[in-house]
């Protein structure tokens, strides 16, 4: 069966790398994600990744520590580069070719973001890891994911989370919460559901870029999504 999507952007949260730890990177989680991504590449899918930095530093927490907002946001971007380097290393251990691309220039460890070059890497079946967010403060890694996915003409954003889709309420707090299989962009807004921040969400809505929210901790989910199975919640 031919895959449903040809080019995807996978959005991972920094917290997802923590596993059972309180902060930092769990090597087991890193290895698990690397193997899941390898399955996609082996199936002929072009994969780009945006990863958050919340396991190391969150820009929004900076104000509590007396750090200025803009400075804190840049520190958060640096955290995403560290996660990107860790993921790059794990992917290369599986035999994949990768490119770490940073929105903030640091030529010793990452390529600068050049759209055409990034697309060319994908066409050559290299996994592209976009780090340092958009390169500007006040934007989240969700916004970076939406921006890069549109720029590289991805077919879909796959947003890996700890829950298996979008619910009427937080399923970890409300046992009566029910899951949606599909939602329209307008319905998400009218119900006030949080899928991504509004900047990111609006960018996807305006460009008709679908988002699938799914449980990344089930190692079979990514493969099932690519094969066209209904996994998680599809927003389109």
Architecture overview:
The two termini are 23 Å apart. Helix 1 (27-42) crosses helix 2 (69-93) and helix 4 packs parallel to helix 6. Helix content is 35%, strand content 19%. The protein is α/β, with parallel strands linked by helices and 236 residues long. It has 7 helices and 11 strands. The strands form 2 sheets. The chain has a 9-stranded mixed beta sheet with strand order 4-3-5-2-1-6-10-11-9, with helices on both faces. A two-stranded antiparallel ribbon has the order 7-8.
Give the proportion of residues in helices: 25-40%
CATH topology: Carbamate kinase
Arrangement of strands in the largest sheet:
4-3-5-2-1-6-10-11-9
Q: Catalogue the unreliable spans.
A: none
Instruction: Please report the first level of CATH classification, the CATH class.
Output: Alpha Beta
Mean pLDDT: 92
How do you describe this structure in short?
The protein is of the alpha/beta class and 236 residues long. The chain has helices at residues 27-42, 69-93, 115-123, 141-151, 185-191, 198-206, 221-226, and strands spanning 7-12, 46-51, 98-102, 111-112, 127-131, 156-161, 166-167, 179-180, 182-183, 211-215, 233-235. Strand 1, helix 1 and strand 2 form a beta-alpha-beta unit.
